[in-house]
Amino acid sequence: MEFSQLEAFLEAANRGSFRRAADALYLSQPSVSARVQTLESEVGVALFHRTARGVRLTDMGRIFLPFAQRSIETLRRGREVLESVRQTSAGILNMATARVIGTYVLPETLQKFQQLYPDANLHIKVGGSSDVLQMVVDEEVQLGLARFMQHPDVDALHLYDEEAVLVVHPGHSFTKTRVAAMSQVAQEPLIVYDPGDPGSSYFQFINRVCRDAGVTAKVEMNLDSVEAAKNMVRLGLGVSFLPRSAVRREVEFESLILIDLAEVPPVLLPTYLLLRRGQEIGPTARSFLKLLQETYNVEIPVLLEDR
Fold first, then answer.
1. Which residue, among 165, 104, 154, has the nearest Cα to 272 in the 3D structure?
2. Are 69 and 110 part of one and the same domain?
3. Between the CA atoms of 293, 299, 303 and 307, what dihedral angle is there, to the nearest 10 degrees?
4. Is the four-CA dihedral 296, 301, 302, 306 of positive or negative sign?
5. What is the DSSP secondary structure assignment for residue 265, as one 8-state letter?
6. Which of 89, 124, 142 is a domain's end point?
7. Count of structural domains, the chain
8. What is the value of pTM for the model shown?
9. What distance lies between CA 84 and its chain's CA centroid?
10. What is the DSSP letter of 247?
């Protein structure tokens, strides 16, 4: 039993004619007649008396009429609800971000996006990079921002590189020259930002830098918060490698001092846009992707169809 069959039945019952029902539905008379006949075959009884002057309901047709009316009304309401939800969802940006990105980088982008699209609703979830990846895979969010993560169902597009920098207390001996060798850093108590995320970029970074320099770091603290790590360094309890975006304000006001590493190239932590392959991207999420594309001067393949 199909919506079109019930619709043809109700129009014919209301208008007393297959021809007038056909005109109302912008169909041919044979099409309306065929739909009613198919419906009658499915319910197993004749619903209309056919006469030369038109049609009228049989007793069975009158019994069936209120059920058909309720069915059509329910279906119409369902369509209206779905359309309402679709339009509402179109104005939502539902995304996930890794902690450092969400704390120190994303807010400025979101502020600009809100200025461009003041009616957009922003739903932001924060977690480790592996958590962000899983939310994208499970389609809990439309997009994710994280350090590099691999999954066969997810496209990872490089957006920018975050530099990890060495910072110390203003009274530290390194501030005299503002340059230190890794052999010197290895003698200092090291405060490590440990987000507790499997495959953390920060752990990989520290291990790689120390291995390349042939030294072993003297790790004194493992903290799951960048803010906690900064506070420990400000108190003179050690030195730390932290994302440049996270210490921008402290470096500006010299509550933390940035130290260059001698003969060590800049250590970059890549940041990626994660998108579930094959997913439909709504207009608000698409607008946000366009802003990312402009901000970081990258090409996002899913936006190519908009050209």
1. 154
2. no
3. 100
4. positive
5. P
6. 89
7. 3
8. 0.68
9. 21
10. S
